Amino acid sequence: MATPVRGRSSRAVQAEQTRQQILDTAQRLFADLGYDATSLQMIADEMGLTKAAVYYHFRAKSDLLHAAMIPGLERIEILLDTVATLRGRRARAEHLVNGLVEFLVDNRQYAVMAANDPAAKRHNLDEESERLRLRALTLLFGNTPTGAERVAFYAVLSIVETLPELVDLPDDELRDALQTTMLRVLRVPPGVG
Fold it and tell me: 85 with 51, same domain?
């Protein structure tokens, strides 16, 4: 008589671990070589798998990129949920900037890849990204932001494009520079109550 198994079977756990390893390998190769220059065969070879094994978990290379981006989008969504609970524009702006900066520093190599790789930009989950951008803009400036507020907001977002030029900065220096600059652009003076 077979004993009932609690939770997932060992086969399901193994499949999820393999899927995650494929995703981790793909992310590293995308960051090192670029999205277009990385093939599914390269990912399979790197892991000692067949290309068919990679296809079993991801039907297309774009599915890998999509899966790699989902945790970041979820992290931004959680950040925006927290920002929505705060009162006052300054508190919201500071929390949003601090959270965004931590995200960028923690995911520096992927942010650099996304900023440099035109193929990664083509597959950047435009609808979800745009929804999050509009939500952040509304949280900071309300439903009818002025032209100047919109320019400031999108200027802050474009700072991500500068990360490839800042790879030499240690994390603490990059963190401080990003926070100071972003808050200045959003006209949130540091330490002013």
Answer: no
- CATH, residue 138: 1.10.357
Whether residues 109 and 156 fall in one domain:
yes
Same domain, 46 and 94: no
CA distances from 106 to 28, 100, 161, 171 (A): 14, 10, 16, 9
Residue 99: predicted pLDDT: 96
Average pLDDT of the residues in 7-27: 88
| Digit-coded pLDDT (tens) for 81-138 | 999 999 999 999 999 999 999 999 988 877 766 666 666 556 555 678 889 999 999 9
What confidence score (pLDDT) does residue 111 get? 72
Looking at the structure, tell me whether residues 119 and 168 fall in a common domain: yes
Angle at alpha carbon of residue 172, lines to 167 and 174, rounded to 5°: 40
Task: Evaluate whether 55 touches 14 at the Cβ level (below 8 Å).
Answer: no
Question: Which phi and psi angles does 88 have, rounded to 5°?
Answer: 95, 135
Strand runs labelled E in 41-180: none
pLDDT of residue 88: 92
Q: Is residue 95 part of a domain?
A: yes
Say how many CA atoms lie within 13 Å of 50 toward its Cβ.
Answer: 3
Same domain, 55 and 68: no
Q: Is residue 2 part of a domain?
A: no
**What's the pLDDT at 8?**
67
